[in-house]
């Protein structure tokens, strides 16, 4: 807490600052950060802000490289107990070494300012890509595969992301995926995970309310997270399913006008994968549905299952193309898609009926009859040779 231009600043991330001094104050705060040095990191520009506070581009003056510097909220940094737990979590997260997970370089402190130095990933995030429309599944699957590989590696080390969403996934110009803020949601908790109070849930915390931010996005929270219950890696699997749904459809799986409505949909709404584009293979629909199973016992139990399913499809996509609709009928109602099949059936039946009627009937052979007639020695028929002899219909005359 300090004074700047006769305005009382509680924290740069709180809406209080805007209410008291307006946008000009935030611009002044930003100007004071640009050019400032935190430890050996010199801040050069602002990248954005989120649940972790302000995010800046900074220059590592020791190793001569650019990094992402997350300046932690004051209300968080001044809590010794939480800060100690955060440092332990940061050490664990620093052990992650995967090509699709942004690395943590260190936790720095300078004149009361605490900041987390992380790998700077250039490129747009997944939310920006989805904003341009649904991602074709032959483009979306490589993205999903890289996300699944990163989650699998972290889960094997006992680390859960718990805040997986499009804004936390970067897409580089080379087509590589980098997941940001891995596991930091847990580090920001104010109370132990076993607390069932909704305000202490892994994604929406009391600390977040105090700092004027929401940690995570409700649309990607699992139902157990929304209820404030303890979570495991299946929470990440749920979020993965929500990501897959959004990439393939271009819209969020769970929407609402406010936070409470979104969370209500997360808890109660059933996702209809049959509403997917007809071009999306059946195996991808089933995978999405399994990830978004509300019943934990039926939800995909391991992200490796999703990774294997995607790899199998990419290895032999033609085997799953029977579920894809023909061009021109994508997204058509069921009755409209059935009309061509019904017409084809009627035409085939008409053709078979015509063939049956017009097919020539083979002649029926006449029965053979044997006749013995006693004419007598004095009777002469006088029938010329070669003339036919015919029996009358009633067999009484020859």
Give me some keywords for this one.
14 helices; alpha+beta; rod-shaped; 6-stranded antiparallel sheet; 398 residues; 3-stranded antiparallel sheet
- Percent of residues in beta strands: 5-15%
Helices and strands: which structural class? Answer: alpha+beta
Low-confidence stretches: 1-22, 191-216, 322-332
Termini distance?
A: 135 Å
Count of β-strands: 11
> Overall pLDDT, averaged?
77
Task: Please tell me about this protein's structure.
The protein contains 14 helices and eleven strands. The protein has 398 residues and is of the alpha+beta class. Helix 6 runs antiparallel to helix 10 and helix 6 packs antiparallel against helix 13. It has a six-stranded antiparallel sheet with strand order 3-4-5-6-8-7, covered by helices on one side. It has a three-stranded antiparallel sheet with strand order 9-10-11. A two-stranded antiparallel ribbon has the order 1-2. The protein is 37% helix and 14% strand. The N terminus is likely disordered. The longest helix has 25 residues.
Task: Present the secondary structure layout.
Elements: E1 2-4, E2 7-9, H1 15-21, H2 23-33, E3 37-38, E4 41-50, E5 53-60, E6 65-71, H3 74-77, H4 80-94, E7 104-110, E8 113-119, E9 124-125, H5 126-130, H6 137-156, E10 169-171, E11 177-179, H7 184-187, H8 206-210, H9 223-226, H10 234-249, H11 259-268, H12 282-291, H13 303-315, H14 334-358
Antiparallel strand pairs: 1-2, 3-4, 4-5, 5-6, 6-8, 7-8, 9-10, 10-11
């Amino acid at each position: 807490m300090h004074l700047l231009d006769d305005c009382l600043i509680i924290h740069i991330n709180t809406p209080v600052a805007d209410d008291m001094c307006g946008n000009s104050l935030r611009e002044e705060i930003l100007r004071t950060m640009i050019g400032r040095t935190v430890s050996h990191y010199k801040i050069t520009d602002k990248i954005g802000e989120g649940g972790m506070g302000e995010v800046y581009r900074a220059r590592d003056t020791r190793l001569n490289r650019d990094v992402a510097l997350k300046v932690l909220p004051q209300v968080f940094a001044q809590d010794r107990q939480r800060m100690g737990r955060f440092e332990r979590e940061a050490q664990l997260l620093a052990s992650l070494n995967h090509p699709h997970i942004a690395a943590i370089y260190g936790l720095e402190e300078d004149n009361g300012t605490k900041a987390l130095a992380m790998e700077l990933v250039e490129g747009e995030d997944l939310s920006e890509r989805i904003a341009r429309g649904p991602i074709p599944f032959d483009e979306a699957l490589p993205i999903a595969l890289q996300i699944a590989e990163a989650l699998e590696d972290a889960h094997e080390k006992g680390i859960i992301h718990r805040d997986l969403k499009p804004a936390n996934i970067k897409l580089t110009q080379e087509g590589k995926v980098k997941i940001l803020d891995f596991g930091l949601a847990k580090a920001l908790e104010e109370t132990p995970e076993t607390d069932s109070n909704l305000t202490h849930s892994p994604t929406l915390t009391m600390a977040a309310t105090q700092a004027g931010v929401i940690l995570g996005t409700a649309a990607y929270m699992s139902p157990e997270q929304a209820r404030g219950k303890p979570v495991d890696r299946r929470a990440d699997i749920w979020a993965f399913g929500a990501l897959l749904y959004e990439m393939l459809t271009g819209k969020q799986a769970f929407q609402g006008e406010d936070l409470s409505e979104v969370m209500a949909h997360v808890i109660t709404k059933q996702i209809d994968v049959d509403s997917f584009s007809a071009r999306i293979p059946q195996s991808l629909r089933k995978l999405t549905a399994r990830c978004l199973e509300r019943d934990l016992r039926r939800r995909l139990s391991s992200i490796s299952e999703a990774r294997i399913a995607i790899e199998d499809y990419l290895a032999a996509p033609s085997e799953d193309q029977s579920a894809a609709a023909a061009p021109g009928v994508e997204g058509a109602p069921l009755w409209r898609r059935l009309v061509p099949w019904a017409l084809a059936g009627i035409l085939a039946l008409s053709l078979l009926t015509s063939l049956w009627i017009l097919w020539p009937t083979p002649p029926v052979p006449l029965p053979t009859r044997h006749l013995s007639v006693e004419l007598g020695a004095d009777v002469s028929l006088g029938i010329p040779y070669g003339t036919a002899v015919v029996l009358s219909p009633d067999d009484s005359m020859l």
